[in-house]
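In response to the reviewer comment on reproducibility (Comment 2.3), we provide here a single inverse folding case reported in full, input and output, so that an independent group could reproduce the run without further information from us. The structure tokens appear first.
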């Protein structure tokens, strides 16, 4: 009986030690981000985008301490699509070209994700795609190029959307019923449909 109790206490102690270690890791990861990782990510992405001729802006998002991010943005442009608001008034719809984001998580690890392009008032944005979550020491040089390559592949698929790859949920199908575009509501959002979804 004593042996069983000792084993259980040992296992509990081990779990407590693991918990304390994880809390310490969070503090260490946050310190690494502030003392150089954030700037290293920025510089590596800046260099890569210049080398391959990608027109992108790279910025920090630091409104919330310890949830900061480095963002590679392809910017926003006029989509070329406009909504008629009256006989002589049209409102152009803005297109967001997509982002590659290196985001601090609450535990100091780095989430790398893709925000897909979307057109305001035309479609619901596709949910972001998570590439991976890294401890700071895991984020090595070759990964940045792989991330950028995957980002460009994903936004290219979005831009070249057609029915050759029906498994790709880009978001446009949300605006089509029976092969016809849904009308826009006065607010610019796709009007609600009377049809029930699949």
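Designed residues, in position order:
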């Amino acid at each position: 009986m004593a042996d069983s109790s000792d084993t259980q206490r040992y296992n509990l102690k081990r779990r407590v030690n693991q918990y304390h270690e994880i809390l310490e890791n969070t503090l260490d990861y946050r310190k690494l981000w502030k003392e150089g990782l954030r700037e290293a990510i920025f510089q590596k992405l800046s260099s890569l985008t210049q080398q391959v001729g990608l027109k992108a802006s790279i910025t920090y998002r630091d409104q919330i301490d310890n949830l900061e991010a480095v963002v590679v943005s392809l910017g926003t442009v006029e989509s070329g699509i406009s909504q008629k608001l009256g006989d002589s008034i049209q409102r152009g719809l803005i297109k967001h070209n997509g982002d590659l984001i290196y985001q601090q998580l609450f535990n100091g690890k780095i989430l790398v994700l893709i925000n897909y392009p979307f057109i305001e008032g035309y479609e619901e944005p596709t949910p972001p795609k998570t590439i991976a979550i890294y401890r700071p020491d895991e984020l090595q040089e070759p990964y940045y190029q792989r991330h950028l390559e995957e980002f460009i592949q994903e936004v290219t698929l979005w831009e070249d959307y057609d029915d050759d790859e029906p498994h790709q949920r880009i978001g446009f199908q949300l605006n089509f019923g029976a092969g016809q575009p849904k009308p826009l509501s006065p607010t610019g959002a796709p009007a609600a449909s009377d049809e029930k979804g699949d």
